[in-house]
Amino acid sequence: MPTSRLITALLLAGSLFSAGCSTLPPTGIQPVGNFSLMRYSGNWYEIARLDHSFERGMTDVSAEYSQNSDGSIRVLNRGYDVAGGRWKQAQGRALFNVDPQTASLKVSFFGPFYGGYHVVALDADYRWALVAGNNRNYLWILARERQLPDEVRHTLLQQARSLGFDTSQLIWVSHSRGQP
């Protein structure tokens, strides 16, 4: 199967899986308020994630966010597929669930199917973020740099545990390659 078809198939599978799910955050989890898309825009490195099929086996994962002219958000995810020995990327579109000041979004990488993206902790200077999905099976720790200080990692792990996430299952993403 050609790479572009494989990526499309993987994104479709992930989107179909999440299609039956709400795009709202899991019960008991509150998205960040006073959110600024302008400050959040730009490149973020994936520091850790709970495993899921659409990123399995990927290293050097990053996401770039920018605003489209229609007010939606362009999402460009990139990562290195170790087994395939190549870079992959997927472009998506995000919309706010409530309002632009609440960091609760729905993201689609394929057609009308959306999954939740909820920033539940955010550094005051927008240097790191803790992001939840539709349920407690989806969690990401993101940062502007490829590494996080130990004390920040520890604090984010404690916060994730207090929200009911199984942090023992986190995959710590290596960043040994430059971006493509």
TrEMBL record:
<dbReference type="InterPro" id="IPR002446">
    <property type="entry name" value="Lipocalin_bac"/>
</dbReference>
<comment type="function">
    <text>Involved in the storage or transport of lipids necessary for membrane maintenance under stressful conditions. Displays a binding preference for lysophospholipids.</text>
</comment>
<keyword id="KW-0449">Lipoprotein</keyword>
<dbReference type="InterPro" id="IPR022271">
    <property type="entry name" value="Lipocalin_ApoD"/>
</dbReference>
<dbReference type="InterPro" id="IPR022272">
    <property type="entry name" value="Lipocalin_CS"/>
</dbReference>
<feature type="domain" description="Lipocalin/cytosolic fatty-acid binding">
    <location>
        <begin position="37"/>
        <end position="174"/>
    </location>
</feature>
<keyword id="KW-0998">Cell outer membrane</keyword>
<keyword id="KW-0732">Signal</keyword>
<dbReference type="InterPro" id="IPR047202">
    <property type="entry name" value="Lipocalin_Blc-like_dom"/>
</dbReference>
<keyword id="KW-0446">Lipid-binding</keyword>
<protein>
    <recommendedName>
        <fullName>Outer membrane lipoprotein Blc</fullName>
    </recommendedName>
</protein>
<comment type="similarity">
    <text>Belongs to the calycin superfamily. Lipocalin family.</text>
</comment>
<keyword id="KW-0472">Membrane</keyword>
<comment type="subunit">
    <text>Homodimer.</text>
</comment>
<dbReference type="InterPro" id="IPR000566">
    <property type="entry name" value="Lipocln_cytosolic_FA-bd_dom"/>
</dbReference>
<dbReference type="InterPro" id="IPR012674">
    <property type="entry name" value="Calycin"/>
</dbReference>
<dbReference type="Pfam" id="PF08212">
    <property type="entry name" value="Lipocalin_2"/>
</dbReference>
<feature type="signal peptide">
    <location>
        <begin position="1"/>
        <end position="18"/>
    </location>
</feature>
